[in-house]
């Protein structure tokens, strides 16, 4: 069993020193610490050093990170990473959270993390819907802006009975269905 560490900061101006020093204090040999300065927005397996680390890990090894969000860009990405590592028999230690092993307690921990992730996602959706509702109540128009001006739409309504929808659609650079909707007032 080998202990490996992973440290990541999101910008070039940030320092990896604090994370790497903490990993060394936790008993990880400096040669087994993989570190990089790369945005967390990038999917976990697209990060060069993290990919090298994943290829180095084998059953019985332990991966140590200082914070949960070092493992991925989103909750789903983090949980997928945890599940993949556990399925290979690799333990994951998150400083301040604990060790997620390939056993019953590891299953419980992963399920708890998944539950919190789902709850967090529900909160985000709720906040988004509330914000959208408030915006509509304040007169904000949702959806795509009309491609045609009011003047153009009035002209289409006037001309539609005498001209083909196809011809008008071509002239105004819109689809036939758009012309039909404008002409019928739907």
Q: Which terms summarize this structure?
A:
186 residues; five-stranded mixed beta sheet; alpha/beta; elongated
SSE layout and pairing:
Blueprint: E1 3-9, H1 17-25, E2 33-37, H2 48-56, E3 62-65, H3 75-87, E4 91-94, E5 98-100, H4 104-137, H5 150-159, H6 165-172, H7 176-184
Parallel strand pairs: 1-2, 1-3, 3-4
Antiparallel strand pairs: 4-5
Note down, in words, how this protein is organized.
- There is one protein chain.
- The longest helix is centred in the middle third of the chain and has 34 residues, at about 105-135.
- The chain is elongated and about 80 Å long.
- About 50% of the residues lie in helices and about 10% in strands.
- Helix 5 (about 150-160) packs across helix 7 (about 175-185).
- The protein has helices at about 15-25, 50-55, 75-85, 105-135, 150-160, 165-170, 175-185; strands at about 5-10, 35, 60-65, 90-95, 100.
- Helix 1 (about 15-25) links the parallel strand 1 (about 5-10) and strand 2.
- The chain is of the alpha/beta class.
- A five-stranded mixed beta sheet has the order 2-1-3-4-5, sandwiched between helices.
């Amino acid at each position: 069993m080998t202990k490996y560490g992973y440290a990541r900061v999101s910008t070039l101006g940030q320092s990896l020193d604090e994370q790497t020093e903490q990993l060394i204090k936790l008993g990880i040999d400096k040669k087994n610490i993989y570190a990089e300065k790369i945005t967390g927005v990038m999917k976990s397996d697209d990060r060069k050093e993290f990919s090298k680390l994943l290829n180095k890990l084998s059953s019985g090894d332990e991966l140590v990170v200082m914070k949960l969000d070092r493992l991925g860009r989103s909750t789903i990405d983090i949980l997928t990473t945890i599940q993949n590592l556990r399925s290979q028999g690799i333990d994951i230690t998150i400083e301040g959270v604990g060790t997620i092993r390939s056993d019953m307690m590891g299953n419980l921990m992963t399920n708890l993390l998944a539950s919190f992730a789902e709850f967090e996602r529900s909160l985000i959706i709720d906040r988004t819907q509330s914000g959208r509702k408030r915006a509509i109540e304040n007169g904000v128009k949702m959806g795509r802006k009309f491609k045609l001006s009011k003047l153009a739409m009035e002209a289409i309504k006037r001309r539609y009975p005498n001209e083909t929808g196809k011809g008008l659609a071509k002239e105004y650079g819109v689809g036939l269905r758009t012309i039909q909707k404008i002409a019928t007032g739907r």
